[in-house]
Sequence to fold (332 residues):
Amino acid sequence: MRTLLVTGGAGFIGSNFVHHVVEHTDDTVVVLDKLTYAGNRASLAGLSGDRVRLVVGDIADAAVVDPLVADADAVVHYAAESHNDNSLHDPRPFLDTNIIGTYTLLEAARKYGTRFHHISTDEVYGDLELDDPERFTEHTPYNPSSPYSSTKAGSDLLVRAWVRSFGVQATISNCSNNYGPYQHVEKFIPRQITNVIRGIRPKLYGAGENVRDWIHADDHSSAVLTILDKGEIGQTYLIGADGERTNKAVVELILTLMGQPQDAYDHVTDRAGHDLRYAIDSTKLRTELGWTPRFQDFEAGLAATIDWYRENEAWWAASKDGVEAFYATKGQ
Ligand code: NAD
Ligand code: DAU
Fold:
């Protein structure tokens, strides 16, 4: 039985991880979360106070971070500014949280000898051509495109340096696009589901030919627990579930599953510098650590996610109008 310090545990993937830990282990969890616009206490509702405690604070604040890292058996670091579109509008918070915040946590892990797992993204590798037979592996060179992905790449490199220079006991994982419950309505899949619920037409950037490699957030959680338990210190593991789909195909599936004509969407202004395709080869994680994803059926996982947004309007309603007003200013 361990105490895990989960940064960003009130966000989308972090809260899915906390639910997963409570369900599948005896560990207790301390969540450190600043509760930015992306964090939501309600994502942790229903979890026993004996197992999960929320500390509201900034990962870039050493006075908050130090005692929590000192008391933890391991840190699982999810906290980040996570949305590419926001990073194009105002990059500064991405530097503060993703770079300085990660640095602050690493210094504490160094001081107290605490095991550290860093959550990162496939976007650090840049993008692939649609017809490229290769997928990203742990050996793909870093080539990030956006302010968001460049700060995530920078944070990965900090972790590697702190392992090599200071002997910090860290691992890194880079995962593909997650879907599932508790995802903010600014993101692609929840935005389109909640648009349809509200009677707004889904919005596809550009031609919609961009490809993302979808994985259910619960599979991301099981992969992270596997790495925490069995991963080799200093190693990077790519997490993916062979879920490549064009954005157009995803919008059409959402519309079909929600009983709408599959062409009832609008093409809107494309994202600046929009990465074309991500695709993960997760052979290392599967063969060396024995992980396999549980949610192999994307259509079933998406249908369950649609049900979740239909049944939990109170969770997302307060954010919806502001998000749509922001996108409208950019013609999106
Ligand atoms: P999210 O935006 O939903 O959640 C981020 C959480 O971090 C929020 O609860 C927010 O309040 C908190 N936070 C932000 N700044 C903070 C700070 N300075 N101090 C403390 N807490 C702070 O993000 P997400 O989609 O759940 O992503 C979580 C992690 O997973 C990120 O590191 C992201 O790069 C990575 N990731 C995301 C995806 C994806 O598809 N969403 C895929 C791969 C990797
Ligand atoms: O690949 C992992 C990354 O996935 C994570 O590191 C990021 O934190 C996470 O936000 C996600 O990044 P993307 O930019 O791929 O996700 P987003 O949900 O913003 O967009 C997915 C795709 O859908 C992308 O090609 C842009 C497009 N899109 C997005 C929105 C919001 C649309 O076509 N319409 C939209 O309204």
Q: What stands out?
A: The chain is about 45% helix and 15% strand.
